[in-house]
Amino acid sequence: MSKQLEIPFEDIYEDCIMCGKKTTTLKTAHVDFRYGYVDGAGQLCRECYLGENRNLITVEGRTILDTPNDSELGAKVRELYWESKK
Length: 86
Known about the structure:
The protein is an alpha+beta fold. It has helices at residues 46-50, 61-65, 70-84, and strands at residues 13-15, 22-26, 37-38, 42-43. The protein has two domains: 10-53, no CATH class; 55-86.
């Protein structure tokens, strides 16, 4: 007789990257079929995804790789942030 691996119920769902609470998204769900998934950041719960306090921006990988100076990179990220607010 084989033993089944028991996974606690709460461990099958993703955690929200902003507030930390459990989402309704299964960890096994492909990112293309997820609601509230942000590329490069992770899974958000419904409230954080729809909320006005969502302050996530996406920075292209090339920007990071092409800017070896951390101070310059920080300035570029800050510029992207303010551009996203327009």
